[in-house]
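Below is how a single chain appears once it has passed through the pipeline. First comes the sequence as given, then the structure the pipeline wrote out for it. We keep one example in the README because the format questions we get most often are answered faster by looking than by reading.
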Amino acid sequence: MTEQYFGTRPTLEAVAARAGVSRATASRVVNGGTGVRPPLVDKVRQAVEELGYVPNPAARSLVTRRTGAVAVIVAEPETRFFSDPFFSQQIRGISKELSAHDVQLALLLVEGPDDYGRISRYLTGGHVDGALAFSLHDDDPLPAITRGAGMLTVFGGRPGFPAAVPYVDADNRGGAREAVRHLLSLGRRGIAHIAGPLDQTASTDRLAGYRDMLPEADPALVAEGAFTTASGARAMSELLARRPELDAVFAANDLMASGALRVLREHGRRVPEDVALVGFDDMVSIAEAADPPLTTVRQEIEEMGRLMARLLLRGLDQGVAGPGAPSSVITPTTLVRRASA
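Resulting structure:
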């Protein structure tokens, strides 16, 4: 039966005494060390359970040199983070993987340039073992900050800088090609593109996929958005003003596609009869709720979060960074056909 302690917490010495082993042996077992014979491991674990022993985090970190926490840095302000379901899905995948390994998640958002100093101080302060960073922009100082902190970092999305660092990304270019190929198969020829912010590689890769399929496309058929519903609506209005004869739109994410859909309806354009519409992401809460439901390119967002965390934890376990860091992963995309195209 488990003994109850009130006022005092059981110590590692008590665990060692209960198991009949030395304090050093008990410490190795409790802190995940090796070199202890299985029968003794079983005795220590039984003593831990019977006594209700909980390791002291500070003492444990001295032994393992690990904090048991990982920073998740999102280079976006709160308004964007909490309004875009992409982030909640990716954080869910990260959280599930970290929780399975008893690692805590410390979320850091970037509201503006002043936050980079705070993040740098946090990373160099010994609070976390590694970092996951995503939604970076071309001039983002985060890569330099994590390098300066000597911290193993896995990036979400292909970084726009030349250094070889581990990252997890979807096949953005291939997914965009598939979206445009589908529109071409429907007989559409005036195909416009609502791009995401062009200082992010996901946007430039999706634009490149569009241009792969339509190398002679009129530049006036491309408008830049910001991965938000409002920006998709603005871009759609621009495109209709420039090229009212367009008969298809490929939007670089589902939020922008939903904004485009509203504007098309306001202009009396039927979807898909007059204008076929394809998004990207397959945010089910958006795509299935749209009227008509949205044809879109699916990327496995939650799984990408899991993979980011998995790569980081593997690298931390192996004690590697820089050139020896875990390899990057590109996940496949698939076209999900619904009623909009």
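The first helix runs from residue 12 to 19.

See the next section for the split statistics.
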